[in-house]
Design a protein that fits this description.
Chain A has helices at about 5-30, 30-35, 40-50, 80-90, 110-115, 125-130, 145-150, 175-180, 230-235, 240-250, 270-275; strands spanning about 55, 65-70, 105-110, 135, 155, 165, 185, 195-200, 200-205, 225, 260, 280, 290-295. With about 300 residues, chain A is α+β, with helices and mostly antiparallel strands. Helices cover about 45% and strands about 5% of the residues of chain B. Chain B starts with a helix and ends in a 12-residue tail after the last helix. The chains are: A alpha+beta (about 300), B mainly alpha (about 130).
Chain lengths: ~300, ~130
Amino acid sequence: MGVNRRKFLKIAGVSTLGVAAKPAADALAIEWLDKKLGGFTVPETLYHLFHKPEGFTPGEALIAKRWAMVVNMKQMDEEIAQACIDACHRVHNVPEIDNPKHEIKWMWHDDYEHVFPGQQHEHIDENSKKLPFLVMCNHCYNPPCCRVCPTKATFKRKSDGIVMMDMHRCIGCRFCMAACPFGARSFNWIIPWPRAEEGGLVRGFEGKEPPTPEYPTRVKGVVEKCNFCAERLAKGKIPACVEACQELCKKKGKEPALVFGDLEDPDSEVRQVLRSNYTIRRKPELGSNPNVYYIV
Amino acid sequence: MYDGGKIIAGIIIGLALLTFPIWYTSGRAAPKPEVKLPVKEKECVQPGPYMKKKHMQVLDLWRDSVVRVQQRSYVAFNGKEYDMSLQNTCMSADCHAKKSEFCDRCHNYTGVVPYCWDCHIPPKEKPEEKH
């Protein structure tokens, strides 16, 4: 039995409607649908229907609507910046690679003129010229990296606004690196932690071992970046850099140079700091709406 | 048919060579892989037969839950709660502490090479116990 013209047109019409439903809903900005789907696309929703995650958020987890960080440059110095970077890179098994073309960084420091290129002028004050501005992923409210990712390996987490990387999905196309205006992403050009093989089987590591065996390493060909310590937040701990920074600042008798908290909560520490200080953000003119603020 | 004898002989030899793996091992199955089950923990997150069949789906669910929907606790069939983590829960010291005595046994037997361990760090094993 063949398909006659009438039946074919019916099927074609219904299929077109089905395919067009999600873009049409997006275009019309039907908020309730977006909320219903939890920020996921229709295929993703269907996937979740059949692959129901049976878990739940652990009780000890730190929960927020929108995580944000404030970097207080009035308290920052080289030593504190380095302590933050070391803590971050140790906790996340970020390899130390000497070749700058291959290097991986989740967090680093740079000069004022590179961090705030739009604000730079030749008569900038001496102090700002010398200060190590701590930079990392800005966890933008409107992340350009997530828009360009073809596999949704990088995505903004609906629950708390963290821009996450799903290493299982990353295909290493590096669109996100091109899209990120802050250079916050690093590509693994070489195997970050070479495995030692023996008789065709992987037997531990070759040479250096990753410092934190609880956290996975990465593989050659994926992009990585700061994840606002999502794995620590789930355990009820603040990000490693903030923890290291606050410890060191306390030792030095300074106010904490890094403050972390919920931007949506008017009583949170970040909101209090933002209320009482003048803050700037990196490249706000691009409209990505960064969630990392700087007190200069 | 020219050279019929040679052709038929060739076909027979060819077929014999092709089917060599089948008749050579017929009646003698390779020894079944034996996984070493943990001594301390008696129950997994799901019943054993289910895990045998479906551990890959369970792990797939886990990774999606953890990375994408921020749900890191799993309620096992017996009501116990587990942190969804291949590296820190499945391979913890009380459970499958040795990759070579658990994962590798079946995976090597069936020629399956999952890429879990390209990134995840298997628990350390002493060199002499590796084989």
